[in-house]
């Protein structure tokens, strides 16, 4: 059996310039090619395109992730190809992969099997340099902040209240908590600091929520980097850093155009994690795709309690987007794992474990249909050892919720294997009731917004926080940030903050450990449980398997 990278390397992609013209009508002079098979698209060209009133936006999300795998990106690609096969003008919108999971434990993020975006190696590695630009913009701000303090501190910044961290796009636990500016007076004032991963940076969030270069610059200027000694906020614009930061991002902000194995066009742009950020590709890419195609298939990271909730409550709220349907991806392996089956025995039929684990997908379906009021289609990402009895059990259990459950074989058969799913999605967008609403109102307090997410989406009994965190939340509301949505950072493996509580736990308490203001992105981050904004590498990182052979071909990437 071929690996994902071997399948991708055997593909024959079309040159991106003629493909863009043929599939999307984009002229040559609106493209900035990066080699033959990837290009950036001019914002000026995209801005002048008229909106399509009939464009359909399909969100792909998944059950709570497990070591067994779910295949959300693979399903997104397969569904996009299938919609193209049944005659729909389709585009795919994905996030760019972070090098943290690529070299860590998750592997690549370009799909899998015969449902991939290509060039797979480029996408999973440096791509067009967007993440480098985002990291540089973030760290320029950090350097200018420290330099301002060193050069006399005209703004009277309290070094104890500096909250802007540096970033690197790599899992490196040693950088979580560090001391900077050692080595004497010429190196500045020593203070405790730390690194986040690039995908957790507020610059990444701003990048993905900005609607133009002007909006990007304004949002960057609104970043709060710390506080003065009399506790007034210090913004990036106070340091005159936002202009140079925008210059670093002026090319990155243009969406990246690539293709699938079956030549369906795809925008891959931006990449915040969904467990520590808002988990969606850029607003610019999504809105542009809706101008260029009749069906746009996008994804939100990790399980629906994280990625989909933030896509709906943050991205859709800020960008004025309205999804037409949600595809909820599951594997029978993952559901059996949620039901207590051993990881080594997931390929065996186990109706008992499956029945117990189905509570996880049932909760996600209820959230989509009842909390957000959206049509939902369940996609079973098929494995060869799935049995007819297991498929029927899942279909029977979900029947009372009135949700279509479709077996999709896109991994093995590409778009052809997902045609039934494509027809089900089209049917849902055309006929199912769509009463889209948010999980909470803007006017609610930050505490009540967090409680609404915890109780409605996670099934928690309540939320908690220590006195210091409660004071921080109160101060944010006093400072005028109470109307912001909340962005919850927590484990992706459970509805609770304990990754070991599988299935659909109820009655738990969600403890808010830390609060961070993202004034430029216009949301408040609620860090819950033991989640880290700088991940670490596993015992055997994926990087150990990645290599280059004597012919210069990358091997072991995924």
Write the layout of secondary structure elements.
Elements: H1 4-10, H2 16-24, E1 31-33, E2 39-41, H3 43-48, E3 56-62, H4 72-85, E4 90-94, H5 99-103, E5 111-112, E6 115-118, H6 120-124, H7 130-150, E7 157-162, E8 166-168, E9 178-180, E10 191-193, E11 195-197, H8 202-209, H9 213-221, E12 224-228, E13 233-235, H10 242-249, E14 256-260, E15 265-268, H11 283-292, E16 295-299, H12 304-319, E17 325-330, H13 332-338, H14 351-371, E18 376-381, H15 388-398, E19 404-408, H16 410-413, H17 419-431, H18 446-457, E20 462-465, H19 467-478, E21 486-489, E22 509-518, E23 523-528, E24 547-548, E25 554-555
Parallel strand pairs: 3-16, 3-17, 4-15, 4-16, 8-11, 17-18, 18-19, 20-22, 21-23
Antiparallel strand pairs: 1-2, 2-14, 5-6, 6-14, 7-12, 9-10, 12-13, 14-15, 22-23, 24-25
Helix pairs in contact: 4-17, 7-8, 7-10, 9-10, 13-14, 14-15
Ends apart, CA distance between termini: 13 Å
Q: Output the structural class.
A: alpha/beta
* Radius of gyration of CA atoms, rounded to a whole number: 23 Å
Count of helical stretches = 19
Shape: globular
List low-confidence stretches.
none
Mean pLDDT: 95
Q: Outline the biggest β-sheet.
A: 12 strands, mixed
Total beta strand runs: 25
Q: Which bin fits the share of residues in helices? A: 25-40%
As a percent range, the share of strand residues is: 15-25%
Oligomer: single chain
């Amino acid at each position: 059996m071929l690996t994902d990278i071997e399948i991708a390397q055997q593909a024959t992609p079309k040159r991106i310039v003629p493909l863009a013209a043929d599939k999307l009508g984009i002229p040559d002079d609106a493209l900035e090619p990066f080699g033959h098979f990837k290009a950036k698209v001019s914002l000026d060209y995209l801005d002048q395109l008229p909106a399509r009133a009939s464009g359909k936006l399909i969100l792909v999300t998944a059950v709570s992730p497990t070591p067994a795998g779910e295949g959300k990106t693979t399903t997104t690609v397969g569904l996009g190809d299938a919609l193209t096969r049944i005659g729909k003008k389709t585009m795919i919108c994905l996030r760019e992969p972070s090098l943290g999971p690529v070299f860590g434990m998750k592997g690549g993020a370009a799909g899998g099997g015969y449902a991939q975006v290509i060039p797979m190696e480029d996408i999973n590695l440096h791509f067009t340099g967007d993440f480098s630009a985002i990291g540089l913009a973030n760290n320029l701000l950090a350097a200018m902040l420290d330099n301002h303090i060193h050069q006399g501190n005209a703004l009277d910044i309290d070094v104890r209240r500096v909250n802007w961290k540096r970033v690197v796009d790599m899992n490196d636990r040693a950088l979580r908590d560090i001391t900077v500016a050692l080595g004497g007076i010429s190196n500045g004032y020593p203070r405790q600091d730390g690194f986040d991963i690039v995908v957790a940076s507020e610059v990444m969030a701003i990048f993905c929520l900005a609607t133009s270069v002007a909006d990007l610059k304004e949002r960057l200027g609104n970043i709060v980097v710390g506080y003065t000694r009399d506790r007034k906020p210090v913004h990036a614009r106070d340091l005159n850093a936002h202009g140079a930061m925008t210059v670093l991002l002026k090319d990155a902000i243009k969406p990246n155009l690539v293709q699938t194995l079956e030549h369906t066009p795809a925008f891959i742009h931006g990449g915040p994690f969904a467990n520590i950020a808002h988990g969606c590709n850029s607003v610019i890419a999504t809105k542009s795709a809706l101008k260029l195609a009749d069906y746009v298939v996008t994804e939100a990271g990790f399980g629906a309690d994280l990625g989909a909730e933030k896509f709906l409550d943050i991205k859709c709220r800020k960008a004025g987007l309205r999804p037409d349907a949600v595809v909820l991806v599951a594997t029978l392996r993952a559901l059996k794992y949620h039901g207590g089956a051993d990881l080594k025995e997931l390929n065996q039929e186990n109706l008992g474990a499956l029945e117990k684990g189905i509570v996880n997908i049932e909760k996600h379906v209820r959230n989509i249909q009842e909390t957000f009021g959206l049509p939902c289609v369940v996609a079973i990402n098929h494995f060869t050892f799935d049995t007819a009895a297991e498929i029927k059990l899942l279909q029977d259990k979900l029947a009372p919720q009135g949700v279509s459950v479709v077996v999709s074989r896109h991994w093995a058969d590409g778009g052809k294997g997902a045609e039934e799913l494509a027809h089900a999605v089209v049917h849902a967008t055309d006929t199912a009731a769509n009463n889209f609403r948010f999980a909470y109102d803007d006017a609610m307090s930050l505490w009540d917004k967090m409680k609404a997410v915890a109780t409605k989406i996670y099934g928690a009994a309540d939320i908690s926080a220590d006195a210091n965190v409660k004071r921080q939340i109160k101060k944010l509301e006093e400072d005028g940030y109470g109307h912001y949505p909340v962005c919850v950072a927590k484990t992706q493996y459970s509805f609770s903050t304990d990754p070991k509580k599988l299935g659909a736990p109820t009655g738990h308490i969600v403890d808010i450990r830390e609060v961070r203001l993202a004034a430029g992105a216009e949301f408040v981050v609620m860090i819950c449980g033991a989640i880290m904004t700088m991940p670490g590498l596993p015992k055997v990182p994926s990087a150990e398997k990645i290599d280059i052979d004597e012919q210069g071909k990358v091997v072991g990437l995924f």
